[in-house]
Specification:
24% strand, 35% helix, globular, alpha/beta
């Protein structure tokens, strides 16, 4: 009962605050405006990306997130942005869309919480058009050994209170394992505690069929 209350009434606002900080917003502003055509956002959460979409470039927008209790905040931001968005309370491991139907997938600060990231990424490849792109912005494994060791030490406790967030995932390795090619990978620490703030971002593409 207490865990359910925390997940519904506390966690969404904690995540919204943490992921809405100025440094994170600047990162979103670099990436999200590049989305175009039929767009699928993985882990739409509380809708923090809504204000960064270029409405002139987006034909349709689907927001996928199993945490349906966060959708109330998302709907408010969708209305404020003047966007039309279809919300789906589902996991990225089974995306209810046809093969090769999406031009752009947007995924920001989401891969850390997906329990099985590689199958989910392969499912994203399946729904992307051959010329489509995955725009990703994630925190993950720090390059400094001492920081990465701290990420590993904190993980058992951190994961319990953060909705299953993993601090030290190797984002480029996960993309490669799922068959994505990273064209313009950038990475750096953004302002904040280093254990939480090593960012990876860029565009990823697939040049082979998703079931290869």
């Amino acid at each position: 009962m207490l865990a359910e209350f925390y997940d519904r009434h506390v966690l969404p606002y904690m995540i919204d605050f943490a992921c809405g900080m100025k440094a994170m917003a600047r990162q979103r502003g670099k990436l999200v405006p590049k989305a175009s055509g039929n767009v699928l956002e993985i882990g739409i959460g509380t809708g923090l990306n809504m204000r960064f979409y270029d409405r002139q470039k987006v034909s349709s927008l689907i927001g996928l997130d199993p945490a349906v209790h966060m959708h109330r905040l998302a709907r408010r931001r969708i209305e404020e942005a003047g966007l039309s968005v279809e919300l789906l309370g589902l996991s990225a491991n089974t995306i209810p869309l046809p093969d090769s139907s999406i031009d752009t997938i947007v995924m920001t600060y989401t891969l850390c919480t997906i329990p099985d990231p590689v199958p989910a990424l392969k499912e994203m490849r399946r729904v992307l058009k051959p010329e489509g792109k995955l725009l990703y912005l994630e925190h993950g494994k720090a390059p400094d050994d001492n920081v990465h060791r701290m990420q590993n030490r904190l993980q058992p406790v951190w994961g319990k209170f953060s909705g299953g967030c993993h601090l030290g995932r190797d984002i480029p390795a996960l993309l490669k394992a799922a068959g994505f090619l990273t064209a313009d990978l950038e990475q750096m620490y953004v302002p904040g505690p280093r254990v939480f703030t090593y960012n990876y971002w860029g565009s990823a593409y697939s040049d082979t069929p998703a079931d290869a």
